[in-house]
Every structure is written in structure tokens, then in C-alpha cells.
From TrEMBL:
This is 5-methylcytosine-specific restriction enzyme subunit McrC. It comes from the Archaea. The lineage of its organism: Archaea, Methanobacteriati, Methanobacteriota, Stenosarchaea group, Methanomicrobia. InterPro entries: McrC.
């Protein structure tokens, strides 16, 4: 029986080497083979910090299946030790954030009725994928023209003259033609992935849905599909609905060591950088209803390219500027928000706001140009707002440092609305700076980019 351990990002957990993979309270018991597999996965990209006695997840959240154990890695959305008591809320919030950002083929409505207390994320991911894919395939099965090279007794398409050279086989005609068929790379990818998932899922309902999908795709060849083959699939307006499902298939096939002959999954991972997820989630929530956050007269762009930072001496541009949120008013006023998934600490100077973050928002403010900027962090130890003012060639530009809680139960309608209300209140502080063109109302340090050597003062000196 596969064991499941719930870990939280940046939290160290003790482990021991054992004969079988298991979980004993807060202690992980891992085999030498499992530790070697974790090391191999770490070599591709840092996931875990593995010491002599402890394992510490980094900033990737999601699920890993290695040997006889499944590791759920969840974000720490609550302060102090409270996150340990709220595993169900945190798992629901992670799934909701993934649904909003469309990183996975799930929707918020699919989360209703799921028992997140009893079901691990590995099973949840597969169940939600299968449920939505089955619904889509019942309404449409993608047919495509695929190239076929066959030897026939009649001419179909065009004759391959280069292969038609044997006088003793002139009655066999090598032909190249295109056939409108469901047996295409897209459907083969779906069928192969569902076949593998059905053999590793332990949830009866999930296995039933996955097998119903392979039955729907009965005319499609069941054959191994590589990641390279998945990457050849192109999407148009006709098959765009399948893109998120193929994205999940690619993740599964790239991170799973399961074949048609193997009896079980040896390794699998579906991990998402939490900083990217936070950025995309906030942008998606605001972009869904920009008038709610900025008012009817403001136009809002989420994560769109806004030119480049520099020009090359030989021509061309470099370092694209892609702020998370840009709001523009009817009179040309511009405000910019950049989200950062970092833990601010009360004990550190300026709560530990990094120089790199300040420089980045400064570049946006100067290049857009903007009348106000905001650095937005997840809820931390930020007990009071931090307000600064950039001096940009005599123009006072307010810079606000704010945070927003991710601990609302986002899987519920009430929780999502509470998050929206809090985020709107945070954004309103930025919106109000439109009437303050001099920056005089904002107490705090003035950062003057015209200082000696044209350098921004070092934040360590604040």
C-alpha cells in the first residue's frame, strides 16, 4: 500500500533509512532506492533539500510519487504553526489557484464534493483530469488529417515513385495519402496517458472514468507516446479545448516512469513554482473583473509585454518588461503592481524587501511611465503598510508595499469573495494615489534615482 506524507514548503522533516517506504508520525522512513530516486529528480531541478537527517521542500508545490511513497508538498498559507492544522483548506486553495490560472485542466466547480481530507493530491489531480476529459470527449472527438504511407493494390493519394521500383511487385503500389481519422497524435496521447493513469490510481471512481475514456477512444491505437511526440501536436481554434489536457499529459509522461509492460508507477511528479502560481493567480482574479478592483474607467492588462528595458548597441531590444498588473486611466495615468511570493519578516530591515524587487518595480515605473507602483506579497508579518516615494526627475512616484492573505478558504464561494474584497481594499490604496501627483501625502523615504553615479541607494542603508 502506497504511503502518503504531507509536507509544507520550507519546513524541515526528519527521515530515516528503512526497508520499506512509510510514514511514522512526523518521521519519513525511506528506502535507499527512494532516496536515490529523489536525488535523481533533484539533479534535474531543485525540489528538496536533502540533508543527513532531514528533508526540506523548497518553493515547488504539488505532488511526487516515488517508490512506495507519495509526497504532497503544500504552500504555507497560514502564519506560525497554524498551517499544520489546515491541510484541507490549503489543499483546496492550491487546487483553486491552479483552476483560476488554467495551469491544469480543472475548474473551481469540479472541486465541489471532493473529500480533500481523505484523498491525496495525486488522486485528486488524476480524478479532476479524467472527469473533465470524459465530459469533453462525450461531446466531441477530435478528428484530423494524418499522413499515411501504405502499400496498396489500388492508387490512393499519390504514388511514391521512389519506392515503386521492383518490377516483380508492380501490382503493389506504394501510396502516400491523408486520412481524416480519430487515430491521430492528439487522441493517441490522451488514450496512452489515461491507460497509464488507470493502472496507478487507487480510487475506484477514477479508474472507472479513465477506462470509460479509453473505451470512447476505442478506434485509437494504444501505443507508447513520447514527450517529443507530444510536442509536435499543434493547436488551432478547432482543437484548442484539448490543449490543457495535453498539457497535463505532457507533465505526466515527462515525469512518470511507467510503460505498457510495467505494473506500477515508479516515479511521478507534478510540481508548480509557487511564486509563478501566486503571480498568475492574483493577475487572473483581477483580470476576471477589473472594474471591481479599479473602477469602470480603468483598463487593466495582466502579465502583458510592455516594451523592453534596454536597446542593444547594434540594434534590437533586450530584457522584456512584463509587469503582473498594469492599470491605465482615461487621462493616461498608469499604475503598476508586481506580485512577489516571498516571506517578509518583521525583524529584518524594511521587512526584508529585496533590492532586486525594488529595482524591478522602479524599472516599470520609469519605462511605462507610471504614476504609482505597488509590490504585493502574500500575507506575512507585515503589520503596517510600507510607503515609499521614488523621485523620478522631479516627479514624485509613490511606491506601496502591501500584502494579501491566501488563507481564505478559496474552494468556497464565501472564501473567494472574501479574498476578492481584501484584494480590492489593497488595490484601492494604489488607486487613491492618482490624486496625489506630488507624493507629499506619503510618509517614508524618498528614493532619488538622480543620486551620485545614477545609482539607486542601497536598501541595506534604509
Amino acid at each position: 500500500m502506497n504511503a502518503t506524507a504531507t509536507l509544507f514548503e520550507f519546513q524541515a522533516y526528519p527521515y530515516e533509512v528503512a526497508g520499506t517506504d512509510s510514514v511514522d508520525g512526523n518521521i519519513l522512513r525511506l528506502t535507499e532506492e527512494t532516496l536515490a530516486a529523489l536525488d535523481a529528480m533533484n539533479a534535474t531541478r531543485p525540489i528538496l533539500e536533502i540533508g543527513r537527517e532531514t528533508i526540506r521542500p523548497l518553493n515547488l508545490v504539488g505532488v511526487m510519487k516515488v517508490g512506495g511513497i507519495t509526497l504532497e508538498i503544500l504552500p504555507k498559507l497560514f502564519k506560525g504553526e497554524a498551517y499544520q492544522r489546515h491541510r484541507t483548506v490549503i489543499a483546496g486553495n492550491l487546487l483553486t489557484m491552479l483552476a483560476c490560472t488554467e495551469r491544469l485542466s480543472i475548474r473551481e466547480v469540479d472541486l465541489a464534493g471532493l473529500d480533500l481530507e481523505q484523498t491525496d493530491l495525486f488522486e485528486v489531480f488524476i480524478f479532476l483530469f479524467a472527469k473533465r476529459l470524459a465530459r469533453l470527449l462525450k461531446s466531441t472527438q477530435r478528428r484530423e488529417y494524418t499522413r499515411q504511407d501504405e502499400e496498396l493494390r489500388f492508387v490512393r493519394g499519390r504514388i511514391d515513385i521512389r519506392a515503386y521500383t521492383n518490377p516483380a511487385r508492380l501490382h503493389i503500389i506504394p501510396c502516400t495519402f491523408h486520412e481524416y481519422s480519430v487515430d491521430n497524435p492528439l487522441n493517441r496521447t490522451l488514450k496512452y496517458t489515461c491507460h497509464l493513469m488507470a493502472r496507478t490510481s487507487r480510487r475506484t471512481e477514477t479508474v472507472r472514468i479513465l477506462r470509460s475514456i479509453t473505451d470512447l477512444l476505442d478506434a485509437v491505437t494504444l501505443t507508447p507516446v513520447t514527450v517529443a511526440e507530444v510536442d509536435t501536436i499543434t493547436f488551432t481554434r478547432l482543437n484548442r479545448a484539448f490543449e490543457p489536457f495535453i498539457r497535463v499529459c505532457r507533465i505526466f509522461l515527462a515525469n512518470a516512469t511507467l510503460t505498457l509492460q510495467a505494473s506500477d508507477v515508479e516515479t511521478f511528479s507534478l510540481l508548480i513554482p509557487m511564486e509563478r502560481l501566486f503571480e498568475e493567480f492574483v493577475a487572473a482574479v483581477i483580470a476576471e473583473d477589473p472594474a471591481f478592483f479599479f473602477g469602470q474607467e480603468m483598463e487593466v492588462a495582466a502579465q502583458q509585454r510592455n516594451g523592453h528595458l534596454v536597446k542593444r548597441m547594434g540594434g534590437g531590444h533586450a530584457f522584456a518588461l512584463i509587469p503582473d498588473i498594469v492599470a491605465r486611466g482615461p487621462a493616461g495615468e498608469t499604475m503598476v503592481i508586481d506580485t512577489k511570493y516571498k516571506i517578509l519578516k518583521e525583524a529584518e530591515t524594511a521587512y526584508g524587501v529585496s533590492q532586486a524587487d525594488m529595482y524591478q518595480i522602479f524599472a516599470y515605473v520609469v519605462k511605462l511611465p507610471a504614476q504609482a507602483g505597488m509590490l504585493l506579497y502574500p500575507d506575512t508579518e507585515l503589520k503596517a503598510p510600507l510607503d515609499y516615494v521614488y523621485d523620478v526627475s522631479g516627479r514624485k512616484v509613490p511606491l506601496l508595499v502591501r500584502s494579501v492573505r491566501l488563507s481564505h478558504p478559496l474552494a468556497t464561494r464565501e472564501g473567494r469573495e472574501a479574498f476578492r474584497e481584501e484584494l480590492a481594499g489593497v488595490v484601492q490604496a494604489l488607486y487613491n494615489t492618482r490624486t496625489d501627483r506630488t507624493g507629499e501625502r506619503h510618509s517614508g523615504l524618498v528614493l532619488d534615482h538622480r543620486s551620485a553615479n545614477n545609482e539607486i541607494p542601497d536598501l541595506a542603508d534604509l
